[in-house]
Amino acid sequence: MIEANNVTKRFSDITAVDDVTLTIEDSKVFGLIGTNGAGKSTFLRMLSGVLRPDEGNIEIDGMTVFENPECKEKFFFISDEAYFFLNASPDEMARFYERCYPATFNRERYTKLMTNFDLDRKRKINTFSKGMKKQLSIILGLSAMTKYLFCDETFDGLDPVMRQAVKSLFASDMSDRDFTPIIASHNLRELEDICDTVGLLHKGGMLMSEDLDDVKGDVHKIQVVFPNDTDTESITDRLRILDNEKRGSLMTLIVRGQEKEIKDILSEGSPIFMETLPLSLEEIFITSTGVEGYDIKKIIY
Amino acid sequence: MTSKRSFTDLLREDLKRRMWPLALSFIGFFFALPVLALIKLGDHITSLDQGWDTLVSLQYSFVSFALGPSNLFAIAGLMIMAVLNALQGMKYLHSRQEADFYGAIPVLRTSKFIASYINGILTALIPYIIMTFLAAIIGATRGFVTAEGLLFTVQTILLEIAGFLLIYNTIVLASILTGHTAVAVAGGAVISFVLLAYRVLFEGYASTFFVTRYEGFSDAGEYLSPFTVFFKIVETESVWRADGYMMARHHGYTFANVKTALISLVISAAILALCYWLIKIRPAEAAGRALAFDRTKPFIKLIIIVPVALTSGLFFPSLTDNSYTYPWLIFGLIVGTLLAHAAIEVIYDFDFKACVKHIPTGIAGGVIAVAIAAVFVFDFAGYDTTLPDRGSVTSAAVYFPGIENSMYDRSYYDPAFEYDGYADTSADYNTKNMVLTDIDDVYTLAGSGCDHASRYRWHVNKPAESDYYDGPAYTQVSVILRKASGKEFKRSYYFDKSAPEVKEAMARIYDTDEYKDNTYDVLSKDDRMTRMPVEIIRYESAGHTDTASSFTEADVEELVAAMAKETRALSLDYLSGEAPIGYVEFEFMQDKNTDPYVNSEVVRPVGYVYPSFTETIALLNKMGINAHEKISADEVDHIVKIEYDDDGNDLSETIKDKEQIAVLIPELINQDYASVNYAVLDADYDSNYEVYLKSTNIRPEYYGDVSIYCVKRK
After folding, report:
1. Do the interacting molecules here have an ipTM over 0.90?
2. A50 in contact with B at a CB cutoff of 8 Å?
3. Are residues B557 and B640 in the same domain?
4. Looking at A18-32, A139-153, A195-209, B198-212, which range is the least confident one?
5. Domain annotation for chain A: domains and CATH numbers
């Protein structure tokens, strides 16, 4: 388990991460969402022990991470701009990581993944495309077989097929071993189908951190059409509406609460039409955070 | 990666990233050592075959030039590799990508630092050592490297490693303190040279604004930069051979070398400890920024602004005709402060708009620079005008540049003389052993000098500055007052020689044996005149040289004794009316000390001959040298008084009248020697006479229309 307690990081007069407290459960995919400059990378770099928090502390499985090689053997950090040695080949990088993670690095898996991803193990990395470098980083990260994998914008630059392949690998690893990926991204859609828990960072602060199932169970998107003479206001006033969009007589509501209770209230207006629609992760965040005074639309779009 | 084995892995991995510096090091040292050794070998074989030099001499030459401290290519290579390897090894601190990479892997940042640090040393020194021994083998194949030479080479390697480490650690420190490689280069330059810059600036301000500044720079500055310290570590005593070929004279290092190397190693160790600590606290986010530690910003800014402002303060006045122009000094100080402040802030933020940030620290830097300049301009410390407490001074020495103003740098002819840095060698040489115990007279001169200095300080814009100095009333004296504490007070005063009490004090000092013994070579207490067998005696008079080569050692000793006696009899009163009529030199062939490296002719001055030196002149004549007393009126055919008016019209007058010539000749002084004692000789240096001699056999050297140019006594 990863625990960050009141973590703050400042760069000169800029507070990149501001008093963040967060718990990341084991064996769940944690998505760290936020716009550019929200503090995702800074938080991940602190999580990786690259940066030392100015305030607060971070512990991984009960160990302080900063300058603690024993703790660092538990994770692999895939930076947004991964570093490879000058003129090195994937095999040379693998050999290096093999020495860094002698207890866990799986050479066979590395070879297999390289073959599966159709990457040349002997070719110089500096001749790889951006996407190929991303793939290589992920392969090296997965081959290290660490308990935690920190991914900073890792899916950015991967084509949809590769993205899906990586997600499958993550899922497979999670089912096979004790594995917890922590993925930072500015793209909500990218994490929608993979994350179990999502933390939203905005301007250095953690806006929310919730289990997606809990969120989805508590927020519903319902389209409804009432007869013209219905006093819709008296009905909607009784609901905890997060978003209300009206096009002609069609109302699209995003409402917090139990689905049955919501529908019962709406039924009192004798709707001509009523249907529950699936909520995207994006809509959940837009609505969830919008009520708390943040204009999340500006962040997301 | 934390166990010993893993650290070896880390070293090996790091070494893989250093292939190009390793290759560069091998290639560079290959040319600097084995290739140079081959070139020297060829030269030396030729010298040996042709009999131009001895094997022993060539052995020393080979070891010194190909393997030792005179191989400047190897030294430059070590310096360059120290800088390059430090920058390359610490580059990972300046890259965000590498900071993330190394920060996240299970390796202590101190382990990574030590691995990079060690490899930086090994990749430079292993090729250097291998190539040095390869060069030694090349020399040994033809007998130019002996066991002794090999030992010397090993000593050189050890000493040069100390020099290398000092530079390397300095640049490593600069790299850690900065977040960008380009700034690390600049930072390395600042750390390496800032103390030297301060020293030079203080010397420059002292030379410019202190009127009584003792000429020259001390050598203390050589210890203020790791680059200059490198040279000090391997500095050996050397001697110029007559063919201009320089080499290590004693072919070995002294304790001074070892001491400097050990101190360098201690400083290197201290820097390394500092680096180790800084690495622990260094924020990874410093990568890409100018400076790694925000707290160092104002401090570094101040130590840069001050010398830049002071340099600028000296620069602008130097562009004017009068270097003492105070408005330009102030302008320079302000401009320097502004430019340095703006440049530093722009570099700190990598943003031009940042030039107006943190103005208070800029002002503080300017104020410090102005305060330092003011100390020199206004002489707040009383450098020019105060003398040490009389009771604290145990002895003194003086040097009058205007007395026995030799055309030689006398110290140059004495291999035993140890140069004291860049100080004025003539003054230092003369005063080195002079111990005047009657200090009151020296204080009289110095007091007059202080009075002059306090007045002169505010006369700086007067156009007739040179007249003021060189006029009849003032002359110069270098004074050294030695304190009981061992410290020396050194000043160079202009004093009023016409004041009776000063004139008397000067005469009393001149008459002391201490002064004369240390001013005139012929009176020197050491055996510099006779320690080598004299081959030729040369006498030069009015542009003509006569020589003698048939004499005995006893003749030489008799001549030296006569010259010594007659020189000791000289007085200032006599020198005010007479100039030398010639001078004597000895030519030696081989040093008695059997110095194997000095085997060519050496000429050393013995001293000037004055008209009163009748015994000396007689002895010279006895040896077959045409030495004469002063020209008499009988020898003169005619005299031309050369004169031009302001428009350049020739107003010269030819004097043929014997009576006029008889009156004039005693008043004329040979122009060649009129400057020997210019401080006391009462001559009109603007007068110009051309004396034509009769065609007699008295002075066969002047047969024909040869004339002697003279000035007239006042």
Report:
1. no
2. yes
3. no
4. A195-209
5. 2-203 (3.40.50.300), 215-300 (3.30.70)
